[in-house]
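Suppose you are handed a protein chain with no further information: no name, no annotation, nothing but its sequence. What can you learn? This example shows the usual starting point.
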Amino acid sequence: MGTLVFEWNSITQVIGSPILVPYWALINFFVGFLFFAWFFIPIIYYSNLWNFINLPITGFPKIEQLGFTVFFTADGKVFLPNLLQYLTNSTYAKAIPPVLYDATTATASYLIFASLASLGVHTILYHGKEILDYFRTSLQKRENDIHCTLMSKYTEAPEWWYILLFVISFVLSALVCHFGEFMPWYYLFVAIPFTFVCLLPIGIVQATTTVNILPIFIARILGGVLFEGRFYPSGIMTFMVYAYQMQTRSLSLILNLKFAHFLKISPRTLFMTQLSITIMSVIIRYLITNYILIIIPGFCDISSIGTDWPCTSLDLQTVFFAMIG
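A reasonable first move is to predict its three-dimensional structure. Written in structure tokens, the prediction is:
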């Protein structure tokens, strides 16, 4: 019960600013927290479901100073994997004994799956008809909305602009994945539909509650299933970046389009601005990364390119957030 805190920094890390979140969403958070943290998790822990009682109820914390995490095996013993071997040797990774989740982590994981499933059902039941109506409606046909009336005076950015940009981006991504040996390029056909299915439900929740429910956990699980024993760990990381980052970038673009809608900025102007900034950002990031790899000795073993993981000085989490940055 001590996990109930009113410290501002702790609260904002979980739900963002409670000042911006609607009160009904906060009530949902609070009720869900009370039920799972105070009742459900203690019940499954002390009833020894799945041998949870062999582990700490909230798992073992990551030791940040030493840069590693300890895990628990099926018999309740502490297991400390060798991070370098884990990253660079897929044979070692396969030899790791089965690792158990604690009661809290297991509950959180299942709730993440349940939340995405419920998002889809909620979107269909509560917003399905509204979504279909909006697809059939143009700016010119919404005379009752002053913002749409004013924005209709601008020339729209043609849909073929977005389609062409998508095709070019897809081809470049496929080439990078193939020739860079990150993952088989055809797995993009899994990452993109995954993003497409999740985008609308997640966007609706974010627009109405300011709460981000991003499917990074699901993307990680999918990557682990697809690349078990192959392209490890670069394939998993690449799939996660495409599946997760397409979500965040798409929502960011929608946010900017909505912002421009209220400020009466031309859609074509916004499209060109977004595109030019993105291209500049990619070039600058590539040059900085390449400079770091060259200037810092031993940062990555360039001669080992093509092996499981040449940059043994970086852990997966650091690489992931560098890739999506």
